[in-house]
Design brief:
It contains 2 helices and 5 strands, in the order H-E-E-E-E-E-H. The mean pLDDT is about 85. It is about 20% helix and about 35% strand. Strands 4-3-2-1-5 form a 5-stranded antiparallel β-sheet, with no helix packed on it. The radius of gyration is 22 Å and the shape is globular.
Length: about 140
């Protein structure tokens, strides 16, 4: 690595956010952005599906697509921008592509992605413990 490149990385490191979310293509996210209108400031939430991630380091950006009034709207955000306050992942989509540009041509239910389920829900856990208790009762009764 050249001296100039090392110097650039050192300067960029101070501008990187400490806590960055794990962004993956296909995730449905809520992006909280700071909007300044005159002397007033507010937070706007843009929710949609991540259709592309590009860049790395300070220049990492991602494109989010959503449907508003039967019209597709895409917006690209710089992850380390001070105007992007938070990115909250709502659900994980199962995808096999790096860029989901084919979603631009889809309408209706075909636009939905399959969800990757993570973890087990409370009902499944309580159901499995109840089943284990019933089995232990049966084992105890037979001996």
């Amino acid at each position: 690595m050249s001296h100039a490149q090392a110097l650039i990385e050192k300067v960029e490191k101070s501008y990187l956010k400490a806590k960055t979310p794990q962004l993956r293509v296909g995730d449905t996210v809520d992006v909280q952005t700071r909007i300044v209108e005159g002397d007033k400031e507010r937070i706007q939430i843009f929710n949609g599906v991540i259709i592309g991630v590009r860049g790395r380091g300070i220049s990492l950006n991602f494109t989010v697509r959503r449907i508003v009034g039967k019209e597709g709207v895409e917006r690209t955000f710089m992850l380390h921008s001070p105007n992007v306050l938070d990115v909250v992942s709502r659900r994980r989509g199962k995808v096999r592509r790096a860029k989901l540009y084919f979603l631009r041509d889809r309408l209706g239910k075909s636009r939905k992605l399959r969800e990757i389920r993570t973890g087990r829900s409370q009902t499944q856990e309580s159901g499995s413990t109840a089943k284990a208790e019933r089995e232990s009762d049966l084992v105890g009764a037979s001996s």
